[in-house]
Structures are given as structure tokens and as C-alpha cells.
Amino acid sequence: MDGTLQVKTTAHPETDALTVDALEGLSQPQKTLSPKWLYDHTGSALFERITQLPEYYPTRTEAGILRDNATALAGLVPNGGALVELGSGASVKTRTLLDAGAHFGAYVPIDISRDFLFETAEDLARRYSALTITPVVADFTGPVALPPTLAQTPKVGFFPGSTIGNLVPERAQALLAGARNWDGIEAFILGADMVKDTHDLIAAYDDAQGVTAQFISNILVRLNREAGADFDLSAFAYRASWDPELARIDMALVSLRDQSVTLAGEVFAFHDQEPIHVSAARKYTPQSLALLAHAAGWEVATRHRDADDRFSVVVLAPRD
Predict the structure, then answer these.
(1) DSSP 3-state assignment of 270?
(2) Which of 74, 75, 187, 251 has a C-alpha 20 to 30 A away from that of 230?
């Protein structure tokens, strides 16, 4: 017997939203595109490839921490409780907790990529026959409506992958504060990458195979396909750089010449070497992570880390 798969969607006219976001971002003095639009089906698959690259240490390091502490982390979820994951993707690391959490009542994966989310949820329903799986299609960086059927169910949040580092501090704080206000929330498991050697950081976000470049460039592919833009992909190059003041990796697409791009009837001029900022990956220290949690209504109860202290999985407890 397969697991129970319950579907809850948040209806979004994705193409219109993508176009509006892009028009707004490209109209700024520093042109930007929101990284949330990287994750269509192709983008989600590309990101899963990135996690397997030799340079990309965060995924395997965090996976090791989760394996080593699976029993303790799964034990945070009360009997019959729900694990709620933000930005679930392929739910690869989540399976470590699901394997150790036979007592879980439900798993709620939340992701913006509808097709990829449902494919993953269906696979999980087959693998975990006793678990109710309720995928929610939503942009987790904004308010998320959890399934009303689980309103009274005790919950533990899960946000791995150091995705918290892709958000500006204000948005990161708002996300954690929103989770703090979920009904029945008992704890929040958060993965965060730590500040380390600059060479290692750059290599992780600019791999030799060019998969990350393809992943970031996919946002232009989407704009051409879904919003009718006319980006010449050969006229833009991917660039990753470290900002020590903000403690983050910046990922941009740089124009290789003076050119113009049309989107929804609007013409945008680019100068040679002008960047479009697409994504950032902020890195933390134990102190900066604790300050972020405190400002959002949490406190760091436990910090699990690897032997080299490259990555942390922290357990946040609600702060009165």
C-alpha cells in the first residue's frame, strides 16, 4: 500500500509573476532577477546536479551531519507530529530524517516548482507507506498557508541546504519569524554554511564543469521561453565573487558587450561588463546565526557541526 498523498496548491499565475518581477528588477540601477525563478523543472534538476559536484561541499557536509544526528533530530518531532520543510526540492536530505522518524504523522514539503514537487511527493508516498505527505506549492519566502488539516498537529520546521543564506537578512528574519508563529511549532531545524577560506567558497559556486553557470543562466532561458524576452545567452557570462563585508558569495550574469534586451515590450540597455545580480549565498558565524535566530523569536538550543566546522545544523527553540 502506498503512502497517503494529499495535494494542496497555492494558485499563482507564474508567468505573469515572473514577468512582473523581471520588469521591476531590470528597471533598478543595479539590475537584479529574483533567484526564486531559477527553480523550474530544469533549474531544480540542475541544482540537484550541483549538490553532487566535488567542489560543492555544503550538501555532503550537511548530509553527514544529518546522518550522524538523525535520531536526535527526528526525535524533535512528537509522535504523530509533522515535519514541515521549506524549499524541499527533491527532499534528498529529508529522507535521512524520514528514515529515522517512523513515528512521524505527516510530512509537508513546500516548494515553488509544482511539477518537480509533485513528482518528488509521489515518490515519497511510495517509499513511506505510513506517512501522510501533503505537498504545498508556494513561495516560501513569503507567507505560507499550511494545510488546515494539520492546524492542531505539533510541528517541527526543516530548512536545510543553507538556503537561509540566499535571503537578505531582513527576509531571512521574516521567514524565521513566520515559522515561529505556526500553530503547534515546537522546534526548527536550520542548515547554515559557515564563513571559511575564500578559495573554497568561490570554487563551490563556480565549478569547473560549469553546472552552476548553467543553473544561474537558466533564469534567462525561462524569461525567453515564458515571458517572450530575447536574451542572447551567448552575450552573458556567469560570475561568482566573495563580498567579505557582507560575508556572502554574489552570483551574477555579466553582459559581454553593449546590448539591448526586450521584455514585455520594454527595452533594457546593458553596458559592457554590466551585471545582473541573480543570487547571493550568505555565510554565518555562530554569533551571527544566533543573532538572526534571536531577532526572529528563537534561540539556538543545539548546534551540530562537522569536524572542520564548515557547516552547522542548528536546532532552534521558540523563545518566550
Answers:
(1) strand
(2) 251
Overall domain count for the chain: 2
User: Taking 90 as the threshold, does the pLDDT of residue 24 lie above it?
Assistant: yes
Beta strand 248-255 with 236-243 is: antiparallel
The C-alpha cell of 275 is what? 551585471
Domain that holds residue 225: 14-37+206-282
Pairwise CA distance, residues 133 & 147, whole Å = 11
Q: Are 193 and 65 contacting, i.e. CB atoms less than 8 angstroms apart?
A: no
Q: Is 69 left (phi over 0), alpha (psi -120 to 50) or beta?
A: alpha
Residues 24 and 73 grouped into a single domain: no
Q: Find where cell 508516498 sits.
A: 125
Q: Do 183 and 249 share a domain, yes or no? A: no
The DSSP letter of residue 3 is: P
Global confidence as pTM? 0.84
Please give the pLDDT value at position 257.
98
